[in-house]
């Protein structure tokens, strides 16, 4: 789906496979009004607020609500380390549960699972088969797939997407597989 990505700077996590470390610092200060004006220049109705970790920025909640008020279909991509309960209910929350290979598994805010709705998604970024088995155990224990869609995404150049697809099919998991389409289409880390 064509989508405008609003990437906020800063992240308290340091996942070993992070492909957006350029968002740890830098960027430019913009008002919510200025961001809305820039988003309106694109011919799409969908907006994703991401980072780094967007919830680490205090004005993020205001931005999310303002985008909804302006009539956009808004999603939030979050690391899963910070509380998502206060996010505007019109926003779809995509919560990335950190796997052991990320190096940040202890940062998961497990209370987030209790507030998820069918509008939300949980994403597992998987670096190896051990991550896959861990994610499968989390699904079984927490039954997240009964609350919202689940995404399994292979770490770029660390796990063969065909292998991941085969494991999902073998185990009959109720998940969708997600690949980084921008890297396949344009062979680059950043989208267009």
Q: What's this entry about, in short?
A:
The protein has 192 residues and is of the alpha/beta class. The chain contains five helices and seven strands; from the N terminus they run βαβαβββαβαβα. The chain has a single domain (4-186), classed as TIM Barrel.
Structure write-up:
Strands 1-2-3-4-5-6-7 form a seven-stranded parallel β-sheet, with helices on one face. The model has no long low-confidence stretch (mean pLDDT 88). The chain has 192 residues and is an alpha/beta fold. The protein is 26% helix and 18% strand.
Q: What is the succession of H and E elements?
A: EHEHEEEHEHEH
> How big a fraction of the residues is strand?
15-25%
Name of the CATH homologous superfamily? Aldolase class I
Largest sheet: 7 strands, parallel
CATH architecture: Alpha-Beta Barrel
Mean pLDDT: 88
Helical content band: 25-40%
First and last CA, distance: 13 Å
Whole-angstrom Rg: 16 Å
What topology does this entry show?
Elements (H helix, E strand, L loop, with lengths): L3 E4 L24 H8 L6 E5 L9 H10 L3 E6 L13 E6 L23 E6 L2 H14 L7 E5 L6 H11 L4 E2 L3 H6 L6
Describe the structure using short key phrases:
192 residues; alpha/beta; TIM Barrel; 5 helices; globular
